[in-house]
Specification:
The complex is a heterodimer. Chain A is mainly alpha-helical. Helix content of chain A is 73%, strand content 0%. Chain A contains 24 helices and no strands. The chains are: A mainly alpha, B alpha/beta.
Chain lengths: 404, 470
């Protein structure tokens, strides 16, 4: 009986195999040649580039002040790219004065104009590169071109434009982004949009309010989160309308934003939000209460310490440790909650903040506590746990201890 | 007998052709994808991520068992990573050497009572320590179990960030590795649930102060061949599978996962051999059952450098263990095969692994034997066989050189001409006798698994210090 190889040989694929060998060997040779040629080319390219970078860096001041005429380098793609890269890197690292100088140079040399043209007329990766460069310039005249790219069909280009607009950090860019999301909805992943809006709305968070009110679904969540990040005391009462909102994200955003509000207004609302059925709303409220650093937040923070969610407990404990109150009374109240998870979270926060020795010392030198109470607290602090009978005798123990 | 030989030769021929074609397709996909990735990176400026207030916190979990030789350098290297908000948890898995002592000296550890809720199964914790030098560093000292899964679970219990990054103690991350690995997550945090980075071979490279100073090719042949294997596996295999959202392995040495999901699937499975593969398989299963829209990514540029075995004995053990791990997980996920509910994982990824990963050593070794027999019995066309062998050799070399090319045009970490020439030479040399030995080790792994021998043998390591330069 014939083997498979015999059959193939007779049927013809032997010729195919021979061809395949030739192709495979040729592919090997081509790949090798490509690697070697590419290496050689790149070695020369980088040597040349390094030399040009060195030359232009030496003449950087002359370039910025146009003592080296623009015509001396603008037509040469190699030099133009190098100079643009140096300028854009300079914009990211320089002080405001230096940045203004570089921006003026980019404008007068026509580099920004060129990038605007490329962002409008090129396609694919070349457009993407132009959008990124335009964003890096932070030039306001680039905003319309970037905004146009937001309406393009290519997701990568939309994202590059969004990042670029975020980079400009200007309210005008925020208006463009908000107008676009108002028109198209959420057509990019949430995080880049959020990030861009945070940068652009920081100066004028009020811009967000009409859009948050009118938006629906996931877009409303995103805008709510942005509002939470950028809210300033100036928003004051405007935020209260979101405290009772149906959307969890928006209540959380309101809680976050209220950390920036005048204390009197914020306490009651935040204490209420700290009882919200949704854990991340409670978390935001607890963190905000902590930021307010006020004695009046203590009851809500102590309640947060017995929360069913681990993160809420941890943040409440951190806020309690960071609060500007005496440590011993707070510790006494923590022990009084009878919640071993809460106590654990509090001690963790104390240790992480490296104030354990301070608490021990304050406890030792405390004169307001009866001797047996002081001894009991010292025992708890030393052992890190509540005594069994104490836990059992305290109301709420069974509920708290059962929580993960 | 002759009929059997004929069937066997048929099988071998088509199998070999299919396997190589699959790799060729993967190579083409990978070349296209990594070119696109390079362009895409231009719009993700890493410095912007570093400044972003929205970059989610990450907990880095480092399981360590008898790592006294490398633990100082490894942890120091991690503490230097660029990322806005990090927490580090080193889990000392009952080391019998001075792992804990080394860390105590280097990072001035003090005992703490940090929150530790044993949500995931893990051996009892003996103590928790926080560094006075860098408070972000927490050390969990636990009873020994000798399994990485148990140690990682202990770390997960203490983690407080929404993302966890699991890193091996004998590995070294590049400074911007976390910024790079988070790019897909930051672009689409709702869908991207896990991301793997590339593992590169550290042997032979120069390290100074916990950082890779210069990537060099190792001296030993066996190590250089592993460099090619890693390039092929990551830059071709994982890159291509990731494109179809069918990535089944995120290396245990470096990967980022959503903490809530890892906890939801019960963390690492204790007693498992291939814990990294197992975790990703269970994540797929969990998410597909929930009909969630998700994505598990591979990113080729965040680099993790790791020491690979430098002697045959350790390499044999490692490869046998990998094969056992593969079979273990494939067996556990057999219920996902060809079930519409599990979509492309059930119809493509898992069958591929069964056919071309698990069965490869069995079929190849069987093929060598039957071809030998056929030659002896005179039912083999020697001319055609030699041609076929030559074709197979040249084709496999194309794939290997393709992975080197991929490295060259994208990341180009080996800058010395000498290194490239050696790397390319080994693309021609790895097929004999290394490939046959490798198949035999994998066969041994299958045999050991079937026999119930799942002992995790120790690998001989030099430690990160030994490859350092002052």
């Amino acid at each position: 009986m014939e083997s498979i190889f015999e059959k193939l040989w007779r049927l013809g694929p032997a010729a195919f195999v021979l061809k395949a060998i030739v192709v495979a060997v040729a592919a090997d040779a081509l790949l090798l040649a490509f690697i070697l040629l590419r290496r050689t080319y790149r070695k020369r390219y980088f040597a040349q580039r390094d030399a040009r970078v060195f030359k232009w860096r030496q003449q950087w001041d002359d370039l910025l002040s146009a003592r080296v005429p623009y015509s001396a380098w603008r037509a040469n793609v190699f030099d133009r790219r190098i100079i643009e890269t140096i300028a854009l890197d300079g914009l990211e690292a320089g002080n405001p004065e230096e940045c203004a100088r570089i921006l003026r140079f980019l404008r007068f040399s026509g580099l920004i104009e060129k990038r605007i043209f490329e962002a409008r007329h090129f396609t694919g990766w070349r457009r993407l590169r132009a959008l990124v460069a335009l964003g890096r310039t932070r030039a306001p005249e680039g905003i319309p071109a970037l905004a146009e790219a937001l309406r393009g069909r290519n997701l990568e280009a939309r994202l590059a434009a969004l990042r670029g607009l975020g980079r400009t950090a200007s309210p005008k860019a925020a208006e463009e982004i908000l107008a676009w999301v108002g028109e198209k909805g959420l057509v990019v992943p949430a995080l880049p949009l959020q990030s861009a809006l945070i940068q652009c709305c920081a100066e004028r968070p009020q811009l967000l309010l009409p859009y948050v009110q009118s938006a629906t679904g996931p877009l409303r969540e995103v805008l709510g989160r942005v509002l939470g990040e950028v809210a300033t005391p100036s928003l004051g009462l405007d935020l209260l309308q979101f405290v009772g909102d149906d959307l969890d994200e928006l209540r959380a955003a309101a809680a976050r934003a209220l950390a920036q509000s005048p204390s009197g207004l914020a306490f009651d609302v935040l204490s209420e939000l700290a009882r919200d059925p949704i854990w991340f709303v409670r978390l935001r409220a607890i963190v905000s209460l902590g930021k307010l650093s006020d004695r009046r937040a203590l009851p809500a923070l102590l309640r947060g310490l017995t929360d069913s969610n681990r993160l809420v407990r941890l943040r409440a404990a951190e806020a309690l440790v960071a609060s500007k109150t005496e440590m011993v009374p707070v510790f006494q109240q923590v022990v009084a909650t009878g919640d071993r998870y809460g106590l654990h979270a509090y001690l963790t926060a104390v240790e992480n903040a490296n104030v354990l020795a301070k608490l021990e010392e304050e406890l030792q030198s405390s004169t307001s506590l009866p001797a047996d109470e002081k001894g009991r607290l010292q025992n708890v602090l030393r052992s890190g746990s509540l005594l069994a009978e104490e836990r059992a005798s305290l109301p709420g123990f069974s509920i708290a201890a059962a929580r993960p | 007998m002759i009929r059997f030989l004929d069937i066997s030769n048929h099988t071998l021929f088509w199998y070999y052709l299919a396997s190589n074609l699959a790799y060729l397709v993967m190579l083409l996909v990978a070349l296209k994808t990594s070119a696109a990735h390079q362009h895409r990176l231009e719009s993700h400026r890493l410095a912007w991520i570093k400044e972003s207030p929205l970059a989610p916190p990450i907990t880095i979990i480092v399981p360590a068992h008898n790592e006294e030789a490398s633990i100082r350098v490894a942890v120091r290297n991690l503490l230097e990573l660029d990322y806005p908000e990090l927490e580090f948890i080193v889990v000392n898995d009952g080391s019998q050497d001075r792992t804990l002592g080394e860390m105590r000296e280097e990072f001035h550890l003090r005992p703490v009572r940090a929150v530790y809720v044993a949500e995931l199964k893990s051996a009892p914790v003996r103590g928790l320590y926080r560094s006075s030098v860098d408070p972000r560093l927490l050390v969990v000292d636990k009873e020994p179990v000798g399994s990485k899964a148990d140690a990682v679970n202990a770390g997960l219990n203490a983690a407080t960030s929404p993302y966890v990054c699991i890193v091996d103690a004998d590995s070294m991350l590049e400074r911007d590795a976390l910024l790079r690995i988070m790019v897909p997550i930051l672009a689409d945090p709702k869908r991207v649930v896990a991301v793997g980075g590339i593992i590169r071979v550290l042997n032979g490279s120069e390290i100074a102060n916990g950082e890779l100073r210069r990537a060099r090719l190792p001296r030993k042949s066996i190590e250089v061949i592993q460099v090619i294997e890693y390039l092929r596996a990551f830059l071709i295999g994982r890159e291509a599978w990731s494109q179809g959202n069918m990535l089944m392995i995120i290396s245990g040495a470096f990967g980022v996962f959503r903490t809530d999901l890892v906890r939801a699937v019960g963390g690492y499975r204790p007693g498992t051999i291939g814990e990294d593969f197992d975790l990703v398989a269970r994540l797929h299963k969990h998410l597909l059952e929930k009909r969630a829209e998700y994505c598990i990514h591979f990113v080729p540029d965040p680099m993790c450098w790791t020491e690979v075995p430098s002697d045959l004995k350790s390499l044999r053990r490692q490869r046998a263990r990998w094969q056992k791990g593969l079979l273990d997980v494939l067996w556990l996920t057999r219920g996902m095969l060809f079930r519409p509910r599990y979509g492309r994982i059930g119809f493509f990824a898992l069958p591929y692994l069964w056919l071309f990963e698990f069965a490869a050593p069995v079929i190849e070794i069987l093929g060598i034997v039957t071809i030998g027999l056929a030659a002896v019995l005179g039912v083999l066309s020697r001319a055609f066989f030699l041609q076929f062998l030559l074709f197979g050799y040249a084709f496999a070399t194309v794939i290997s050189i393709g992975s080197v090319l991929q490295e060259e045009i994208t990341y180009k970490r080996y800058n010395d001409w000498q290194d490239v020439v050696r790397l390319v030479s080994y693309c021609f040399l790895e097929h004999f006798p290394y490939r046959q030995m490798h198949m035999f080790w994998r066969l041994q792994g299958i045999w050991q698994y079937l026999r119930g021998d799942d002992v995790w043998g120790p690998l001989k390591r030099k430690g990160l210090q030994s490859v350092s330069v002052p």
